[in-house]
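Can anyone check this?
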Amino acid sequence: MIKAKKSLGQNFLIDKNIIDKIADIVEIKNESILEVGPGTGNLTSSLLKKKPKKLFVVEKDDQLAKRLEESFSKEITIINKDILNLNENLLSQDQLIVFGNLPYNISTEILCKWILNLNDKKIWFKSLILMFQKEVADRIISNLNSSDYGRLSILTNWKLNVKKIFDIKPNSFSPKPKIDSTLLFFTPKNEFQKLKNPFVLEKITRIFFSHRRKMIKKPFNQLFSNNLRLRNKLNIDLNLRPQNLSFETYYKLAREYEKLNG
């Protein structure tokens, strides 16, 4: 029996009902699929029944990768690597539909990597169906003026549409996590604020949200040297707090920062 490794954030999905629901979210017949963190292959098996054109699985754990090879032989392409070190653009000429029971300890890192490194001219995925800890998912889907609103929701909404599918209870996993999980569905946006360096948005939000309960006057001045013209152009009230600024305001601030800094 395979034992989950805490160091890799492993929690294997074992609830057949939930597994089949996930596999049914989108039509995958004749589509190219990427599964991240297949673990013991429970979802993999369900996906194969839907007759995809190709199924890639990324599994970092050597022992699990070997088991997957034994279980599925030539039905899948196994990539025994860390997903954080993988260039997804090189996997397939087709746009991929991605399924992922993401390791909790690196789930936000994976999502941020995909957003920040997204090639605007050739987007490598058609949709993302990803599982997160519920508290992380709540931050991803949060909106303006809420306590969960912050860097993660701003970054996500920059290039992706996102909606919640459903919550999943701990007893659907082995070992049982201590918290609920949430499945989210993402699709790429056709229109978004273009930035030469996407990491500028990451910098802007990091500085603004470093003191989320304080007014934005200090971070604004730190980044823009109390630029009155910019304040008026974007109609920004410096007495507001970071969670009171809209998605679009942050994207415009990132664009203005690029202009001012060459």
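Reply from J.R.: I decoded it. The chain has a mean pLDDT of 93.
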